[in-house]
TrEMBL record:
<comment type="subunit">
    <text>Component of the Mediator complex.</text>
</comment>
<dbReference type="GO" id="GO:0016592">
    <property type="term" value="C:mediator complex"/>
</dbReference>
<keyword id="KW-0010">Activator</keyword>
<keyword id="KW-0805">Transcription regulation</keyword>
<comment type="function">
    <text>Component of the Mediator complex, a coactivator involved in the regulated transcription of nearly all RNA polymerase II-dependent genes. Mediator functions as a bridge to convey information from gene-specific regulatory proteins to the basal RNA polymerase II transcription machinery. Mediator is recruited to promoters by direct interactions with regulatory proteins and serves as a scaffold for the assembly of a functional preinitiation complex with RNA polymerase II and the general transcription factors.</text>
</comment>
<dbReference type="InterPro" id="IPR011425">
    <property type="entry name" value="Med9"/>
</dbReference>
<dbReference type="Pfam" id="PF07544">
    <property type="entry name" value="Med9"/>
</dbReference>
<dbReference type="GO" id="GO:0003712">
    <property type="term" value="F:transcription coregulator activity"/>
</dbReference>
<keyword id="KW-0539">Nucleus</keyword>
<comment type="similarity">
    <text>Belongs to the Mediator complex subunit 9 family.</text>
</comment>
<dbReference type="GO" id="GO:0006357">
    <property type="term" value="P:regulation of transcription by RNA polymerase II"/>
</dbReference>
<keyword id="KW-0804">Transcription</keyword>
<protein>
    <recommendedName>
        <fullName>Mediator of RNA polymerase II transcription subunit 9</fullName>
    </recommendedName>
</protein>
Amino acid sequence: MTPHLYKSLLPKLAHVLQLTRHSEGVTTSEAKQALLHATNDFKSTLSQARDLAANLPGGELTLSDQDEVIRMLEAMRDQKRALLSQFAARSISAVVPISQVDMEVDSTASTPGGS
């Protein structure tokens, strides 16, 4: 969603109001066309802004619902941080040093079969 769309609403409305208060009023056909164009531009932009706002993810949530979701996410974050801290505090050591591990390589297991 672009903030530019919302920022453009007020100047477009001001332009419509300015055209209605113009010294000629809306008596000439040019003034009527300019007012019609400005009004349609404002209405189109307002419609786009409404559509964007209506389709926001989670836009149907009330303020208290949003606060509840935020609290739940913060609690989950805190639990994960605690688990990571516990994990980081553990010392991890191998039961048998890797250098002492005997590995047997089966050459037939890695050889393609050609029966």
